[in-house]
Amino acid sequence: MAVQLLLGPALSYRHLGRLSTDPVQSEMEKLERPAESYSAELGLTYALTPRLSLLTGLGYSEYATRLDLTVKQPVVVYESFRRPVLEYTTNGLFNTLYVPDSIPSSNEEEQQRVRHRDVYRFVSVPLQVQYQLGTAGRFSYGLTLGATANLYVGGRTTQASGCGCDQDSWNLGKSPFRMVSLGLTAGSSLRYRLAGRWNLSLQPTFNYLLTPLAQTPDRSARHILSAGMRTGVSFDLR
Questions:
Q1: In which domain of life is the source organism classified (predicted)?
Q2: Greatest pairwise CA separation for the chain in angstroms
Q3: What distance in Å separates the CA atoms of residue 132 and residue 105, rounded to the nearest whole number?
Q4: Which helix (H) or strand (E) holds 159?
Q5: Distance between CA atoms of residues 40 and 2, nearest Å
Q6: pLDDT given for residue 102 in this prediction
Q7: N or C: lower Cβ tally within 10 Å for the chain?
Q8: Is 34 helix (H, G, I), strand (E, B) or coil?
Q9: Helix/strand/coil for 23
Q10: Which residues have a Cβ under 8 Å from the Cβ of 171 and sit 6 or more positions away?
Q11: Rg of the Cα trace of the chain?
């Protein structure tokens, strides 16, 4: 058996799947772009055979997308003037009075830069199979394949109403997103044996959220995906 700690950055994005029934929300989501994210995992590995091992543990992941927009809104410019008003007097004369007034004189556009990072945070429980393909001196290399149970714990997303300039924050108890979801994990591993029972690990990893994250039809289904590189150490318990 061995205990390992891995963490590292990734690039995350999403597959929208079923589009939102809200056309404004749908168009906003189509403008999302990939963003940096990260994950960390503390795991326990059990060797079934000299080459095959099973891993489980506890992890934390933050996936993200970004919006970088220039929003144009019409602005009406008003021109002020004094409007004449005639008032009849008792001696049969008209006195001219002037009151302040204004009229629209031109239409202009106002530009506003919107830069948002939408975030989705998960606590996860992985169940992975690791297969060692070979060794070279102190190095060993192999493949990793498995599934992950994810618990949504919060985040923030951009509002589709108005100019999309504001964000909503969500937590575990209240959100439009599914609380529990299932994901797939695939990757490779490179291990270097240090002194004693310590090992240095490097794992390129790909993750895909199978379960649609959104649970309401006013948002697109949203399947999150990411590709990253995790590094860390492991300690043999034998």
A1: Bacteria
A2: 116
A3: 75
A4: none
A5: 17
A6: 66
A7: C
A8: strand
A9: helix
A10: 153, 154
A11: 29
Q: What is the pTM of this model?
A: 0.80
CB atoms within 10 A of CB 201: 17
φ/ψ (deg, to 5) at 158: -80, 135
Cβ neighbours of residue 49 closer than 8 Å, sequence gap 6 or more: none
pLDDT of residue 46: 93
Report which secondary-structure segment, H or E, holds 60: strand 52-88
pLDDT digits (tens, 9 = 90+) for 105-146: 666 666 777 788 999 999 999 999 999 999 998 999 999 999
Instruction: List, for the chain, all residue ranges whose pLDDT scores fall below the cut of 50.
Output: none
Pairing label, strands 180-193, 198-209: antiparallel
Residues 6+ apart with CB under 8 A from 48: 54
Pairing of the two strands 52-88 and 94-136: antiparallel
Q: Are 200 and 191 in contact (CB under 8 A)?
A: yes
